[in-house]
Amino acid sequence: MAKNPPIGDGHRNGAVRDRSQVQNPVNGNWIKRDTITGRFIDQKSDGTPFKGVRKEK
């Protein structure tokens, strides 16, 4: 079986599935969203986008 060393370093290989993110035009925060239900899941307050999550247009 293939490994992606070093094992256990906490990084993800590939993108997060069934998630997308969009930037709130009012406050500039990035909001993570479930693509299946359309519900908002999480919001980042520091103004940087989520890592590994695709962006909506």
Describe the structure.
By secondary structure, the protein is mainly β. The chain has a domain at 19-55. The protein is built from no helices and four strands. It has strands spanning 19-23, 30-34, 40-44, 54-55. A hairpin with a 6-residue loop joins strand 1 (19-23) and strand 2 (30-34). The chain starts with 18 loop residues before the first strand and ends with a strand. The model has no long low-confidence stretch (mean pLDDT 91).
If helices are DSSP runs of H or I spanning 4 or more residues, what is the number of helices?
0
Biggest pleated-sheet summary = 4 strands, mixed
State which percent range the strand residues make up. Answer: 25-35%
* Largest beta sheet: strand ordering: 3-2-1-4
Tell me roughly what share of residues is in helical segments. under 10%
Mean model confidence by pLDDT: 91
> H/E series, N to C?
EEEE
Alpha carbon gap, first and last residue:
37 Å
Question: What is the subunit arrangement here?
Answer: single chain
